[in-house]
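Entry, Tuesday afternoon. Goal for today is a structural model of the target with adenosine-5'-triphosphate bound, before we commit to ordering more compound. Inputs were pasted exactly as handed over by J.K., no edits. I checked the ligand SMILES twice against the vendor sheet because last time a stereocentre got dropped in transcription.
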Amino acid sequence: MPEPMSEQTHKILIVDDEQNMRVALFEALSRNGHEVAVAENGGMALEMIARNPPELVITDIKMPGMDGLELLRQIKVLRPELPVVIMTGFATVDTAVEAMKQGAFDYLLKPFPVEVIEETVARVFALARRLVQPSTRPLVQKAGEAVALEKPIIGQNPKLLQLMARARSVASSKATVLILGESGTGKEVFARFIHQESGRRNGPFVALNCAALPEGLLESELFGHEKGAFTGAIITKKGKFELADGGTLLLDEIGELPLHLQAKLLRVLQEEEVDRLGGRAPFKIDVHVLATTNRDLEQAVKEGVFRQDLYYRLNVIPLKLPPLRERREDVGMLVDFFVRKYAAQYGKPVKKPSSAVWARFADYGWPGNVREMENLIERAMLLSQGHELELWDFWDDVEPPSRIETTATVVSQACGQSAVAMANTSAAMDVGMQTLREVERQMILQALQANDNNRTHAAEILGISVRTLRNKLHEYRSQGMID
Ligand SMILES: Nc1ncnc2c1ncn2[C@@H]1O[C@H](COP(=O)(O)OP(=O)(O)OP(=O)(O)O)[C@@H](O)[C@H]1O
Ligand SMILES: [Mg+2]
């Protein structure tokens, strides 16, 4: 019998539709002195939470009826401070990422050894003890505060540094800046940088995406409207120009602005005053306008869909951000930055990508630029189970190696073995390779048996691919171990 790991008793609710799993977890956690309750579906779990709230919920993702993700959502509405750990098979790993984004405390990849669940539970309560108010999350928004940049520009590429210097010098002017570059190259980051570097940093930073709204709405979003200006204008509404007064206005995808609004925008830029729709008189505003586009504006001018005079006005100071593939020397710094960012955000240790990952990064094209890298690292940090970030943490098309050696305990529990048989299995694992191979064979056969010979389910429980499972069975058959 192992010693209880935690000195304190906590109320834990297990939610899983599989009885074996409920029993295995119930036994493991009660053995550690916790008060454990079990529910076999989401509805039952919600009822139990309402009646007798636990301090931690551990739920499976894939369940008939309400799935784990939906349960998580409902818990986050009813009791946002209640930590939820989710369990998932390799096949639903993307759902795990989704769950983490929705506020799950952590996730466990099935199958896992008992120590993993014990360790996770210990971490939940260690953190809960450190937090005075469990529901207080770090506030991201620091409106109006002139503090360190929330989104710093990371990089050392000479062209990037030159662009930063230029951005700094235009920050104090009021000249319109056109920020160009492929999607995800950091156009908004640069816009915020200009705002922060200017005397307007204590003023508002307002952004509007010109491609996101239909023409009619876009006009009143930009310039505002008076009550009664048109059907549906039941209140007076300030436009983005007014909202950005004393600060910076970022017009994203300016190339999508319809021609008549281009004319209106040009007038606002020249006169420095706006007129609400239905307004009686224009009034002065003080706004630094920055614009971005993915579109070739020069071409748009030639095609007659973009006004030449507006183009000239916007293009006084262009900043053309290079795509990531043209500044590979920044990859290392960016990886390091995002790893630290997500380690902090998700309370995980800082990890390094493996050498295989670096090799793949080295000749990767980064079509989605820095945004793509950030998303990849976030995903890898969420999925990573080892000391290093591995290929399969980043890319779906790379399969993790079989984790079979570490899974004996839970699989045998999930297969309904007794504690004694379990102990025997674990002991057998230490003996040597021949025995290990034997344990592996037993586990595979047990998993198949427990799943009515369904190879997909068995492979999922074992944490191996169906292909690997098929190969193993082929091997046993050719050795005459099974028929
Ligand atoms: N140099 C950089 N250093 C750190 N983070 C960066 C850098 N460039 C971009 N990012 C990050 O990458 C993501 C995308 O950046 P951003 O939104 O500025 O791109 P964008 O050029 O505006 O893209 P889109 O054209 O799709 O709007 C953001 O999360 C941003 O913080
Ligand atoms: Mg953008």
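Residues 151, 153-155, 181, 183-189, 294, 370-371, 374 surround adenosine-5'-triphosphate (ligand 1) (CB under 6 Å).
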